[in-house]
Amino acid sequence: MDLLIDVPVLVAAKQKMPMIKVLVEDPRAGEVRVKMFASGVCHSCLHAYDGSHATPMPMILGDEGSGIVESVGSGVTTLVPGDHVIISWLLNCGTCPPCRDGKPAHCWAPSPFGALLDNTQRFKNAETGEPVLHYGPATYAPYTVVPESSAIKIRKDMPLDKAALIGCSVTTGFGSVTNAAGARPGESVAIVGCGGVGLNAVQGARVAGANPIIAIDTSDAALQMAKKFGATHLINASRDDVVAETLKICPRGVNHSIAAVGSTKAMQNGVEILGSGGTMVILGAPPNGAVLEIDPIFILGKERGIRGSKYGSSNPHVEFPMLIELYLAGKLDLDSLVTGNYRIDQSNEAFEILAQGGAGRGLITFDQ
Q1: Could you tell me if 135 and 20 lie in one domain?
Q2: Distance CA 257, CA 253 (A)
Q3: Residue 320 · residue 166 · CB < 8 Å
Q4: What is the pLDDT, as a whole number, of residue 245?
Q5: Would you say 91 and 116 are in contact if contact means Cβ atoms under 8 Å apart?
């Protein structure tokens, strides 16, 4: 039956989200309903909140979370109520050739913004009956409905609050280095932007054996966190010439740069510090209409490359369990990522702190 929840709903950009009573439908065929345990506070959602990315409304935000399966729809074979899961924000079909090949980011199924794969919603305003849209998996809802393929079963001894972070920022940042860039031991990696995603790119570089690992940001606090996570060199972009300082460390340029912030200036720096055969991986989403100007001769002459990476170019069904094993073995630091803890009715405060440039990751936890 439908469940009644109180949830913050985005009804207008640049305005606080009111808590609204919403009904959550039962899962349909091939879907599961998850009782959320925790959800990370993500920059992608901030872009919707502050209006820098055009977003339909009313909408429930949240693209990073963990929880426990509450009920399953018909045809679900891999999950049962009580399973612990991390939610993948890739609402992929799980059956097309790219999905079967372990590349869900390339899923052929239409992924309508604001809805599930069948282009319908599972939320509705309890008073008006009006549909309420999904921001991906809508993990700010105490209960949410997602496709079976987007709920990844995990071992029950993994703390669910830390597991939530793997749902987006950890996988995206870590995989940008290990999957998209393919960094090898001894190769140089520069991470431009050390927010929640960038810090995990630093961790990915450390685990990959990269050296040096250069962290670049405008915040000294973020840079100090990057050092804790494995950066060997720090550059403050608000004070220093990023290109000149990077070339002092790596005179021939870096093997890999990761643009982990949606700033075209950061991306420009990421290209200009590349050495011969180097590749910049773009992770950060810039505002609508942003344009990156690149000299093609600079790219052509030394076989430099630029590529995008969606979700760390990962297969969540493989990546999530692997990252959990690294965490439980003490090789991946999730504990230090969390710098703010919030209740769901404090989500506006969480966004405001994130907008001010707070280092690390905010985490919303739900009543259990």
Answers
A1: yes
A2: 10
A3: yes
A4: 99
A5: yes
**Does the pLDDT at position 287 exceed 80?**
no
Long-range contacts of 157-161 (CB under 8 A, 24+ apart): 157/328, 158/84, 158/324, 158/327, 158/328, 160/37, 160/38, 160/66, 160/67, 160/68, 160/84, 161/37, 161/38, 161/66, 161/338, 161/363, 161/365
Q: How far apart are CA 12 and CA 175, in angstroms?
A: 33
What's the Cα-to-Cα distance from 52 to each of 93, 263, 358, rounded to whole Å? 29, 12, 18
User: Among candidates 150, 209, 198, 152, which has minimal Cα distance to 176?
Assistant: 198
Structural contact between residues 249 and 212, judged by C-beta atoms closer than 8 angstroms: yes
Main-chain phi, psi angles of 175, to 5 degrees: -70, -25
Give the chain's end-to-end CA distance (angstroms, integer).
20
Give residue 268's identity as a one-letter amino acid code.
Q
Same-domain status, 45 and 98: yes
* Chain-centroid distance, C-alpha 314: 12
What is the distance between the alpha carbons of residues 33 and 212, in angstroms, rounded to a whole number?
44
Give how many domains the chain has, as a whole number. Answer: 2
**Separation between Cα atoms, residue 132 and residue 84, nearest integer Å:** 26
Tell me which amino acid residue 284 is.
Answer: G
Q: Is residue 355 included in any domain, yes or no?
A: yes
H runs (alpha helix) in 192-241: 196-208, 220-229
- How far is it, in rounded angstroms, from Cα 132 to Cα 104? 26
Q: What is the pLDDT of residues 115-152, one digit of tens each?
A: 998 999 999 999 999 999 999 999 999 999 999 999 99
In a domain, 259, yes or no: yes
Total-model pTM: 0.94
Domain that holds residue 109: 3-153+334-365
CA atoms within 13 A on the CB side of 282: 16
Note whether 30 and 147 are within 8 A (CB).
yes
223 and 144 in one domain?
no
Same domain, 179 and 120: no
